[in-house]
Amino acid sequence: MRTKVAIIGSGPAGLLLGQLLTGSGVDNVIVERQTREHVLGRIRAGVLEKGMVSLLERAGCDARLHKEGLIHEGFEIADNDRRIHIDLKKLTGGDTVTVYGQTEVTADLMAAREQGSAQTFYSASDVALHDFDGASPHVTFTVDGQAHRLDCDIIAGCDGYHGVSRQSLPERSRTLYERLYDFGWLGLLADVPPATQELVYSRNERGFALVSMRSPTRSRYYVQVDTSEKVENWGDDRFWDELRQRVPADVAEHVTTGPSIEKSIAQLRSFVCEPMRFGRLLLCGDAAHIVPPTGAKGLNLAASDIHYAFEAIRDFLDNAGDGALADYSVRALTRVWKAERFSWWMTSVLHNFKDHSGFERRLQQAEMDYIFGSERGRAALAENYVGLPY
Fold first, then answer.
1. Residue 330 burial (CB count, 10 A)
2. Which of 181, 222, 293, 351 is catalytic?
3. For this structure, is 293 an active site residue?
4. What is d(CA 342, CA 295) in angstroms, rounded to the nearest whole number?
5. Is 148 in the active site?
6. 385 is catalytic
7. pLDDT digits (tens, 9 = 90+) for 111-132
8. Which of 100, 181, 201, 308 is labelled catalytic?
9. 12, 30, 272, 368 - which has most CB atoms within 10 Å?
10. Domains in the chain and their CATH numbers?
11. What is the pLDDT of residues 164-181, one digit of tens each?
12. Residue 331: alpha-carbon gap to chain centroid
């Protein structure tokens, strides 16, 4: 079996690349280790930058997004009893973000792929990448007990942090940068109306909290917890009580409680693998980098990777040769590190750290005071939040 591009992973990154390639007449095959249902069941981020919205439009997967997505012109930051509105549209000259769940993005991309002729292998085991450092890369895998070999020109590794793509690289060929935080986010999803019309990032002496939503009838809330915490120790009532103690009083009054649909704890980490290109293998999304969710950059960084990867692959196939792939890593990493910085900064300012000295806590407060007191500071925050240009 042969194709132009072998895509490892059918999350939003792999599916988006597949749709862009298919729309340009480039054959591609996706190999996914999980089932279709498992991929669709993953609950993830929901704030889309304008760049990602544009890519979904280009891929022809924007109809439901524009019908059901919520345009947000700003968000709020709360510092215990005080609050400030970050007017994204005003501070950036008209830019906004769109609230639309990653699960919905995945469903739209998956439906579009299934309507076409592009092939996807789900439940693939023993996935292995071969000869990507030469001119004849190929992928081997097993589905339903049958072994397959997929020859290709390029491999796109879109299979996440735990996927085989990055793990296939020799250790001497990569440099890893990582920071683990001593806390996580306990998230709860419920079919209840949102407490506010915009997101509220709340810094509180009890710990960070986030008020967010997926739709006018579905809410997503988070509270900072220690990494030792277990989901089973957090019944719904305990979660709602803790949330209301961490957000401003008038927001707490509008929190509608209800049974959780999903509840999970995500440990926060910052992670980058360099470079992101190894011969004919391009790493994209979480396979190459992880950001704390505080700045809403994870899914959006995957989208910008796909933008750069798609351009590199298209140029390569237009007879430009391997030289067309050479700039992919530099271009992608330039934007990745800026997003890593922003996510680290948001995380550092808004959360409680057990090991912080009095000096560091005063610096945190100074950062908050600067945002509350400086329009230029808020403009820099807004510029990064809506997404830096590709």
1. 13
2. 293
3. yes
4. 7
5. no
6. yes
7. 999 998 899 999 999 999 999 9
8. 201
9. 12
10. 5-72+97-178+269-347 (3.50.50.60), 182-267+352-386 (3.30.9.10)
11. 999 999 999 999 999 999
12. 18
